[in-house]
Amino acid sequence: MQVLPGHEALALLGAVVALTGLALAVTGTGSPMFVRHATPDGLDGRVRRVGLGAAVLGAAVAALALATG
């Protein structure tokens, strides 16, 4: 017995990816509460960009899955 239909499961997965990406985009590699030293390779900026991309992609997947369901 399937708990969620396919499109709803995909929408839930997209929402989880979007929320995870949003958390990465907001926090980067650490909490702003604590003092951070800038990394020479710019890792914090890359993590934020990947998080933003994941948030956008997850939201698009969730919206598409709900629209086609």
Which residues form runs of ≥5 with pLDDT under 50? none
What proportion of the residues form beta strands (DSSP E)?
under 5%
Shape: elongated
User: Roughly how many Å is the radius of gyration?
Assistant: 16 Å
Number of strand segments: 0
Averaging pLDDT over every residue, what do you get?
82
Distance between the termini: 19 Å
Helix content: 55-70%
- Write the element-wise H/E pattern from the N-terminal end onward: HH
The count of domains is 1
Number of helices: 2
**Sheet of most strands:** none
Structural class: mainly alpha
Tell me about this structure.
By secondary structure, the chain is mainly alpha-helical. The chain has one domain. Helix content is 70%, strand content 0%. It is built from two helices and no strands. It is elongated and about 45 Å long.
Distinctive features:
69 residues; mainly alpha; 2 helices
How is this structure best summarized?
The chain is mostly helical and 69 residues long. The protein has helices at residues 6-27, 43-68.
Task: Outline the secondary-structure elements.
Blueprint: H1 6-27, H2 43-68
